[in-house]
Amino acid sequence: MLLKILNKIHRQLGPQTDLIMLLLLVAMFSVALPLSELIRSVSLGMLIPASLVALLLAWRLAAFRWLPGSLAWLIMIALGAEMITLWAANLEATLFWLVVNSSRLLWGIAAQRQFDPAELAHVQALLLELWQGLGILLARLFNWSANQMAGQPDFDPVAVVLVWGLAVWLVSAWAAWAIRRWQKPLVAMAPAAALLATVLAYHPRQAGYLIPITGVTLLLLALVNVSSLEERWETTGVDYSPTYKTEVAAIVIPVSIALLGLASFSPSISVWTVASRVQQWLAGPVEQIDPAMNALGLAAEPANRQDPALTRLLAPGLPRRHLLGSGPELQETVEMVVSVESGALPGRPYWRGLTYDIYTGHGWATSKTNRLDYDAGEAAVAAPDQLLVRVNVQSVENRQSILYSPGPPVTANHPYSLNWRGPEDAFAGTITARDYQVDALISQPASAAALNSGSEYPDYIFNRYLYLPKDTPDRVLALARNLTATAPTPFDRAAAIEEYLRRFPYSLKLPAPPRNRDMVDYFLFDLQQGYCDYYATAMVVLARAAGLPARLAVGYASGAFDDKTNRYI
Q: Number of helices and strands (H, E) in the chain?
């Protein structure tokens, strides 16, 4: 069917118009490709179909000279918003089956003068699902927009897909409209080039992406001018040589290549210089990107890693004693014994030692840290809104000097150190004592508070704990978006991801993950079984892809509780 449609379009347009449409598609691809690589949650699989449909729709509407431009653009904007919204909310399948089942129901009523109650109930269920999904989507978009205007930007992947998807739709439609209706290639390509330049302003090293769209614009200038001349000559009866197109091409193509080469390598007019100037005008240094741009998916690179203390644990990769795919070290040997001195622990406490913030695609690393030393009894943090608990930790074998605690450590009864990434954000603590007492903070929000929690995160959390590598596979990002698109609150989105991951069986007998694969992609789509590090890593990555700040915590599970001694083993 698609081939028949394309063949019909080809017969109607002609070879010269085919070439213009091909150049327009190449231009939009040169815009969509860097957007999909540089903007979080935006995929090429969404942008290319949206761009193609927008080009064909605008080209067709521009041919109707009787159609006012305002009405034509109202139609294009409405259809574009509908298409991108359904894609972002993962509701296109729901709409498809709603149309199919509604048509079947109406056909039954028209042909047999009766309808199936079960079919009607199915249509009603699909309609309710579509209505609820769109309602949640619009509410998320409203909250996201309100946060931006209030100066409290947050990242919502659904909103990001809507904004950038609609932007690509509009610049594609404008390009086709301006060429077909006005025959002005520069006017047609200006919005697409401006959109691309804005994105590249935050990634100046990728400014080479400006070259293809510049080359296409030059070729369109020549091709549209030739088409305009031919149309004028035929209208006025001017005779012209059929070989002139070859002569024009022999001049235009080498000149275009020469201009592109000059723009690429000349220090005075290079595209890198242009991108750098635009970036300085829009945002200042890359390290100081406006949080609003992060909310649009233009996330900054994480801070450089360092390797001071805790060398073995700061090195990029997975935690050295929690290696994915190894398994044998996860044995039931006693590591430490913990008893509660004062305060109350939650029903199932964990003994945390490390937290990682940078996912590399193959493991975990931490941002730059600053080590601070504390005397025995000296407080490192103070948080009066949280509960304080004191535990005694007795290490069975003094293999390492990591400070373990059931929450953020406040103080210890021996000299200790903490490595900080920023305020209230510790990577790990160390202590030389084999047996020690540590005071820690326990957060136990009420269920209502958790359910109603918003997305007004502190800057250090927003800027650090949403980062994902640029080469994170599209299907991982799409899975996160699809799982959470119709979840109204952050809590609901986290719960949806957790519920999905619990479908995978637990196993310690696993092969090592391939070196050339993203670890989470391998776990979610190929391995589909694992143990704690797989689940935790996948949870963090999917959460970040869904706009939920998250980090990886490493330590020990609760262990076995001894009722006689009131100790955790």
A: 19, 13
C-alpha to C-alpha distance for 283 and 267, rounded to whole angstroms:
22
Q: Are 478 and 515 in contact (CB under 8 A)?
A: no
* φ and ψ at residue 203, rounded to 5 degrees: -140, 65
Hey, CA dihedral for 20, 23, 29, 32, is it positive or negative? negative
pLDDT number for residue 307? 36
Q: What is the C-alpha to C-alpha distance for residues 278 and 284, in angstroms, rounded to an integer?
A: 9
The rounded Cα 232 to chain-centroid distance in angstroms is 49
What string of DSSP letters covers 258-303? Answer: HHHHHHHH-TTT-HHHHHHHHHHHHTSSGGG--HHHHHTT-PPPPP
Which phi and psi (to 5°) does residue 395 adopt?
-80, 130
Phi, psi of 288 (to 5 degrees): -115, 40
The dihedral of CA 287, 291, 292, 295: what is its sign? positive
Are the beta carbons of 539 and 501 closer than 8 angstroms? Answer: yes
Which residues have CB under 8 Å from 264's CB, separation 6+?
208, 211, 270, 271
Residue given tokens 């996912």 in the structure block = 359
Segments of 194-267 assigned E as strands: none
Q: Which helix (H) or strand (E) holds 176?
A: helix 157-177
Collapse the DSSP code of 323 into the 3-class scheme (helix H, G, I; strand E, B; otherwise coil) and give the result.
coil
Residue 431 sits at φ, ψ, to 5 deg, of: -150, 140
The most distant pair of C-alpha atoms in the chain lies apart, rounded to whole Å, by 106
**In whole angstroms, how large is the CA radius of gyration of the chain?**
29
**CA–CA dist 441, 424 (Å, integer):** 12
Global confidence as pTM: 0.72
> What is each CA distance from 235 to 13, 66, 188, 223, 262, in whole angstroms?
19, 21, 25, 18, 39
CA distances from 304 to 114, 250, 301, 308, 367 (A): 69, 50, 9, 13, 6
Q: Is 419 helix (H, G, I), strand (E, B) or coil?
A: strand
DSSP letter for 363, please. Answer: S
Question: What is d(CA 82, CA 525) in angstroms, rounded to the nearest whole number?
Answer: 30
Chunked mean pLDDT (size 10), the chain, 569 residues: 62 68 87 84 84 89 87 90 82 78 75 70 81 81 78 78 90 90 87 86 73 80 71 67 63 65 54 52 46 67 46 46 47 81 81 89 85 89 77 77 88 91 85 89 72 77 85 89 88 93 88 83 91 90 93 88 86
Q: What is the pLDDT of residue 437?
A: 93
SS3 content of the chain, % helix, strand, coil (to 5): 55, 10, 35
Nearest-CA neighbor of 475 among 522, 414, 428, 430?
522
The string over 392-430, giving b where at least 16 C-beta atoms fall within 10 Å of a residue's C-beta and e elsewhere, is ebebeeeeeebbbbbbbbbbbbbbbbbbbbbeebbbbbb
